[in-house]
Amino acid sequence: MGKSVHIRNRNGRLYIEVYLYGRQIRRSLGLRLTEDKVQNRKVLRLAEIIRSRREMQLACAEWGIPDMVGNEKSLSTYVEENYQRSGNYTLGRCLHYLKKYRFGSVSLRAVTPQWVEDFQAWLLGGTGLSQGTASLYSSALRHQLRLAVRDRLLSSSPAEFVRNIAMPESRKQPLSVSDLRRLAEIEIKGELGEEVRRAFLFSCFTGLRVSDLKSLRWCMVREHDDGSLWIHKVQKKTGAGVFIPLNGSATSLMRKSDDKCAGGGGVTGNRAVGNGDDFSDCVVSKDGNDFVFPRLAATKTNTDQYLAKWGLKAGIEHVSWHTARHTMATIALEHGAELRTVSELLGHSDLSTTLRYAKATDSLKKSAVNALPEIFSEEN
To answer: Long-range contacts for 58-61 (Cβ within 8 Å, ≥24 apart)?
Structure first.
């Protein structure tokens, strides 16, 4: 027999045994038989229900049809299980709002196109979220429904029949190289302000989000065999790893303003990271767990207010942490970096996400036109 499911009694403890093409899998049911015959009949009925449900799941898998047992699971439970495995920040926030939604306890098989449409309408009108954030959370839910199809819990995603919340066009502009130079010459008062300034400029050379700047530790700064310095870090938002090389400007920005040395704790093996004179006087910390930007990591203050005032002093509007990430993508492309490379530096899994950051600037348009061949000679 190719497959079969049985209930086994081992010293009063009940197990389910699955025989699947020569393999035997045994799982405890957490049920026990006692001297109470009435109670035993109830326990055995429950065990038989479990056995039949497992047998049905195997049949569904064999015939390639949706799991008629698994899709009884609630949507929020399925999403939470995936969130526990991935730790994805956006998925976690989507789960938060799914649990708050009045009809969020729906089972997987009860999710319909109308339910998806109503949930999206609630995200837009009943939560106070911006359209862009609502679009992100809606996209996260849509991905979960596609995963449910992959897991054979659904035959098709009900979200396929509903238009997603549109991602609004960003009105924030990236900074130019001259903008960065102006900002670099303007100080922000206070120890926290100075660290916010350095961290922002550092983000313009690395593309790190503010959440990753806050969690960046010296042990994540590593020296490769060729002497170059790289950041090896798991992103807080997505859970994906990024590997970012540091140029001279980024390296100098890691200096602590109140330390005598540039690094004060970056370690590779038993020695401090180094980059010529910048790191020659570094002292290796005990475990490398010191934060690169400790004041930023510790503060509960909304540091965007520092950036907004700083930008206005330089004559630049709408300076925020996200501006730095946008700036890194655009300047890198303007200086010849390939889109795929920039996407990997930013930690994007989809090139379309990078395209939202990297709008065609005048410089890119000019370079594209200048690359076209000339067909008329100067004499003509």
So the answer is: 58/3, 58/5, 58/18, 58/20, 60/152, 61/152
Question: Quick check: 354 pLDDT over 90?
Answer: no
- Residue 178: is it exposed, middle or buried by C-beta count within 10 angstroms (0-12/13-18/19+)? exposed
In angstroms, the CA 339 to CA 351 distance is 8
Query: Which amino acid would we find at residue 281?
Result: D
Burial code (b: 16+ CB inside 10 Å, e: under 16) for 74-110 equals bbbebbbebbeeeebbbbbbbbebbeebeebebebbe
Amino acid at 240: A
Question: How many angstroms separate the CA atoms of 380 and 374, rounded?
Answer: 12
Characterise 276 by phi-psi region: left (phi > 0), alpha (psi -120 to 50), beta (else): left
Is residue 116's pLDDT more than 70?
Answer: yes
CA distances, 111 to each of 75, 142, 148, 158 (Å): 8, 11, 11, 7
What are the tens digits of pLDDT across the range 153-162? 888 899 998 9
Q: What per-residue confidence (pLDDT) applies to 153?
A: 82
Q: How far apart are CA 210 and CA 301, in angstroms?
A: 13
d(CA 259, CA 68): 63
Q: What is the pLDDT of residues 60-104, one digit of tens each?
A: 556 555 545 445 788 999 999 999 888 888 899 999 999 999 888
Mean per-residue pLDDT, 202-210: 93
Give the separation between CA 239 and CA 308, rounded to whole angstroms. 29
